[in-house]
User: Fold these one by one.
Assistant:
Number 1:
Amino acid sequence: MAIVHKAYRYRLYPTNEQATLIRKTIGCARFVFNHFLGKWKDAYSSTGKGLSYKECSAEIPSKANA
């Protein structure tokens, strides 16, 4: 008997305010990712080991401390 895979597609229609917030959120996430990617590459080239998640997340301030 063949396995049948089902998929559902959804399309979102955000308001202008929601679309702006989505773009800002994605932009911030991209900035943080690229920042730590650069730090990881520098650490790897100098020590031969990359950074761990724990080391990277310790550098991100929490909302309570901000």
Number 2:
Amino acid sequence: MASLRDVVAALETAYPPGLAESWDAVGLVCGDPDEPVSTVLFAVDPVVETVDEALQIGADLLVTHHPLLLRGVHGVGADTPKGALLHRLIRGGAGLFTAHTNADSADPGVSDALADAIGITVEGPLSPAPGPALDKIVTFVPVGPAIGAVHEALSAAGAGEIGDYSHCSFATAGTGQFLPHAGANPAIGQVGKLERVAETRLEMVLPRGRRRAVVEALRAAHPYEEPAFDLLEMAAIPSSHGLGRIGSLPEPESFARFTDRVAAALPATAWGVRGAGDPEREIRRVAVQGGAGDSALGAAVASGVDAYVTADLRHHPASEHVLAGTGPNAATPALVDVAHWASEWPWCVQASEVLTAALGGSVEVRVSRTRTDPWTTAATHPETRRPPR
């Protein structure tokens, strides 16, 4: 049987905590890592209904997308709503784990699950996260044993790591030249005499955070009194991580039919699905972002997609967006606004499959179908008429 520690490790491998925004609160909220886990329930929200469900099915762990304790707290007394939920989980022998903005930016993550549910083939992130910040150090070492010593020192300081490889470097042969002046103590040559030395140009990448350590290691290991080196900042390379996704439908379809497609793909909510744009506009390329996404309207426009699917769109940004371009050849994408909960629910299925693949049959996984969307009723005016298909 798997332990809670095993489950957490599997989830954090898929949704690395380092991808979370600085303001977020992700990871294990309560639970003993050494306790066994036989059943895990996945849900969007840690609320009374999902806690009830977890305890009713005998789950050892409730995994949610939204945090219970997003803001700092000074206590979790059972006389507070959130404290009461934690006390119930602990008394019932269940832990709580959260994967929030780290799951949003992961590859695959929340928006991949949304795109897959709608039937979109993903091409990449809508708002790519930059890759790791890297520098390159270039130095020049006299031919001989010093090359190995300098290379090893730089590697030990953190240079030369690329993926699962270490000690990575590139070396080329050349000739160095220098003229020692009075006061110098050259390792090779004499004061006042121009010296030419067979040298090796050594290049290695390094994490920007290791810059000082690598330079200090170079100076300590290099045989020259004043070693020459270049330290170059490398351009950021977009990664497969980031918010939102861009992709394509199998075949073009009208915006009205596309809106129907989205509604059929997601769990039913009182909010439903709303579309802003010409119903007859042809839709092929689509951007999606699970959760609140009007902050990414600019990225959706820049991507050149035909439609953008997200949640919690506000009136004024949406109105101004639609005003910027309408008609079948509009420059801005049509908008599809769905319920926040519904846009993120497909992730629960994805995460459950991730855990099953990581731990096999040692853990039973369940996905909550309890609707925790806060909106419970909706009404349409009798005069409202939907545009013809």
Number 3:
Amino acid sequence: MTSPRPALLSDVIAELDRVYPPVLAEDWDSVGLVTGDPADEVRTVRFAVDATEAVVDRAIADGAELLVVHHPLLLRGVDTVGAHTPKGALIHRLVRAGCALFTAHTNADSARPGVSDALADALGLVDTVPLDPKDDVPLDKWVVFVPDADAAAVRDALFAAGAGALGDYRDCSWATTGVGQFRPVDGAHPALGSVGSLEQVDEQRIETVAPRSARAAVLAALRAAHPYEEPAFDVFAQVGLPGPLGLGRVGRVDPPVTLREFTARVAERLPTTAWGVRAAGDSDLRVERVAVCGGSGDSYLAAARGAGADVYVTSDLRHHVADEHLRGGGPALIDVAHWAGEFPWCAQARGVLDRAFGERPGWSSAVLGERTDPWTIGAVDPGR
């Protein structure tokens, strides 16, 4: 039996895109490959939340061919990556060292597993569901009418163009038979029948679904495979329904604990930062239902309240927003450093690639422990 070949960067990208689909990224985001040649071999991979100078230095020192990060290095408008700029200097160093850079940001936030799943797992939550569910990938329902003899060819063409996928199933369709009727007029070149004569044909009504993004490809495939000069078909845009994907998670702590105990658990299980862990609420509050959101989550305070959470764990909570939330009867709050709340995702992403490529020759992966939280000094008045 031949041994597997080394992984290519294109293989690794395909696996990351499978688990963290780019289609889940917010419109303003920038995700995917930043630097690197998809044809290059990848054996050594490193993971971090941010591509800071210290992280890039460590990845290069480790001989990494790929650095996978959560936060985009090039997010907002960039008109230069010259080495005279801080970000450009990092790009040049990565390129010179042969180390590719890949980002999974808001697509990893909404994926399942994703950033908030990693945070929920670290805190011991069970039975988690999205805090802010994202609609399933927008689908079209295609209804195509085709003669019996050509139904299989048309169906296969639709599938090849991206139709027929439902969850973990492929080549999905439904069909029934009936009689189609048409009368070609002057200028027509009918595949069946003749100009001026009424024609009736035994036909199949084929129904299938396809991502809305594949509409042009499916239409082109339909027209190419269908025997008729003017094929009859309908396209229905389906209503999006909440699915298992989305931002944040809500789950249970089993057994329940007090807010004081749960705050201590958060501090124990997340990496230590100068920011620390802060809680707001009754320290003796019984905590069973917990909402979490990795990263900045103050826009989901109402969602946490609507989900019936006893406490909401997130980052970057502002004074007035938190105060108004608590005065309005919202759940207790636990505020952690942005980096700390997202750091557990690094191990999750590492596991994704290790499961796919761990048996490949020379494969090596590691999460970089460099703290990329910008806050570096924490102080309290020792007299208080």
Number 4:
Amino acid sequence: MTRFTPDLFAGSAAELTAIRRDIHRHPETAFEEQRTAQIVADKLQSWGIEIHRGLATTGVVGTLKGKRPGQKTIGLRADMDALHLQEKNEFDYASVHANKMHACGHDGHTTMLLGAAKHLAASPDFAGTVHFIFQPAEEGLGGARVMIEEGLFDKFNCDAVYGMHNMPGIASGTFAIRAGAMLASSDSWEVTFKGTGGHGAMPDRGTDPTYVAGQFIVAVQGIVGRNVPPSQAAVLSVGHIAAGTPGSPNVIPSEVLIKGTARSFSADVRDLLERRLAEVAAGIAQAGGCTAESKYHRRYPALVNAVEQTSLAVEAAAMTVGRENVDPNTPRISGAEDFAFMLEKKPGAYIMIGNGGPDEGGCHNVHSPLYDFNDRILTTGAAYWVNLVQVELGNAA
């Protein structure tokens, strides 16, 4: 089996960097990735790869059959969308669109998969079929779910599906992955406490939902500390509180709205968080003479890597950078990723590629207005994808 290292892609480094920076300069947010999708489609077609467009509005799927006979099919997925965020970088390829920025590295993810597609199209020495899945709307709107609902795996059946994301804080030239739950589910919740309100000087003549809400905010942390088993992990955070009017601080409001996020790694804990948030809100509200209306919105499920495909991803990463530079037991991450929807339908694995450690300098975290994808890892990511095709389909039948 041929081993592809980043050095073998050195001749493509300048081209990949140009593509990545062009996409970075022109960020497009969820379901609006028309320009990015056109770049992807044009590149794939120019390399002789059959394309399909239109899933989830702007999704692009390229299909490449190996030159050797084989029935196995795999999907390789990259996300394309940017964030609603004002970029603060001042380099010449900074975003030209106000309040839109590639602050999570999807410009790099798209480019790395394009680099692999170009190489594989020129030398399709594998048995079976590869689907290159370029997905819109990962950032909060569930583009993966929409692609699936619109027939992604009906039109392009995959025996396994794989994804990759950059990770600031770990060195370039390294990979990290784990079998089982790797990223958390991401849910949102809201509670509205209702009382009578009244004059701030006479709180005894009404019911005060702000007092109830304050107790609830503290009690929320007790759900994780006292209801979630110590062997599990979960996060409940408050992100929004709204009540009253700034011009009337002497008025006790009649309603308080609290919104937050919930993260967990198992279905049981997810169910527990939903149930206990409502129970705690209702109990505290009743004690304070108020009522509580609770809503829980399930958004992204936990991302769960299959054991077999994780092993294959580790092998491909080791072929790319050496086994000593691959962590197969990385700690779980409380962030979320809508690739989880694809892993609910198909076995597969999601891997993290190092975007640069602390000693490499200038490596800001994702979703920062100063973030930038590390162009030095473009060839590493492309090589990983090609090695994964070799591992999965090199001897497929």
